[in-house]
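Researcher: Structure for this, please.
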Amino acid sequence: MNYYAGIGSRKTPANILNVMTHIAEFLQRREYTLRSGAAQGADTAFEKGAGELKEIFTARSNIPSEAMSTVDRFHPAPGNLSPYARKLMARNAMQIFGADMNTPVSFVICWTPDGANGTTQPTSYNTGGTGQAIRIAAANGIPVINLGRKHTTEQLCEKLLSLINS
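Model: Predicted structure, token format:
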């Protein structure tokens, strides 16, 4: 089974939300399962296009201890988080590794206002909660395609073409 994370800001622009829905439809036809977090904006745009091929993780999900441990390892200020916010950050790990914390996504597609991808563009305060998933993915060598970056179109087209040709 193939998985991807479709995530991002609640403030994702409407035109990008539309693109996200179409990307999810395309990936669903190629039997890729979406992992996301049910937040308004990017998450729900991806969900709309994913059909039944989706795994949605929320703060109310059954969060394993392995996911909870990622909060202290990857969040820049874990001590400042409320118990609820810690659960939100832990669910980001599940978006990357699944409920079993052993089945990674192939790639992440997202939108953040700063275009962070965790490698050439580090996360910042402006990345928001999506930054936790980006940091986890980048630390594990999982490509992050951020639609908020100016030159992402080429990277996205290459990824989608590779799926068409596989």
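Researcher: Any notable elements?
Model: The chain has one domain: 2-164. The chain has a mean pLDDT of 94.
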